[in-house]
Amino acid sequence: MSRLSKTAAVLERLTMVPLLIAGAAMVAIVVAGTFWRYVLADPLLWTEEAARYLMIWIALIGASVCIRHGEHVRVEMLVRLLPRALRKAVDVVVAALILVFLGVLVWIGGGMALEATRQTSPALGIPMAVPLAVIPLSGVLMGLHLILRVAMLATGERAGVFDWAEPDQDHADWEAGR
């Protein structure tokens, strides 16, 4: 395993641990909210808001892992019709466009999070900068995963990275590495 592959794997693990913790916390909060509401007839007012913010964090941070494996939303049917060399060129152009978008996301999302430091959430009473901080954070993580993915494709490494030439083999490699 090359240094590039190791870096990508470490970044993925560092991304997955908080996702697992957030997922477990969200389940616990929803169960507690349901128990208090329907069994104790004394609803906790903050559980729905906390679960919503955790779900948003999980979705946006989890999207970076999808990008690492090339599983972001795209139209594969048209690209598969192209010759292999052209497929790689399209992949690079799409990656560049995604990086531009992520740069805008980090810039604008960071500004929104900074502006929201004076606002508090209605039920939790936390600064709105906390839920909004996921926007620039996820943009940075997505960008890092995408750069590593493109670098791995450019050097001919696969290591769980989607390759247009053999999508079924990539899926099998990813499953084997789990």
Automatic annotation (TrEMBL):
**Where do the Tripartite ATP-independent periplasmic transporters DctQ component domain residues begin and end?**
26-153
Key word Ribonucleoprotein present: no
What is the topology of this protein in the membrane according to its UniProt annotation?
A: Multi-pass membrane protein
- Membrane spanning stretches: 16-38, 50-68, 89-108, 128-148
Please verify whether the record's keywords include RNA-binding: no
Location of the protein in the cell: Cell inner membrane
* InterPro entries tied to this protein: DctQ, TRAP_DctQ
Instruction: Give the protein family.
Output: Belongs to the TRAP transporter small permease family.
Protein known as: TRAP transporter small permease protein
Q: What is the lineage of its organism?
A: Bacteria, Pseudomonadati, Pseudomonadota, Alphaproteobacteria, Rhodospirillales
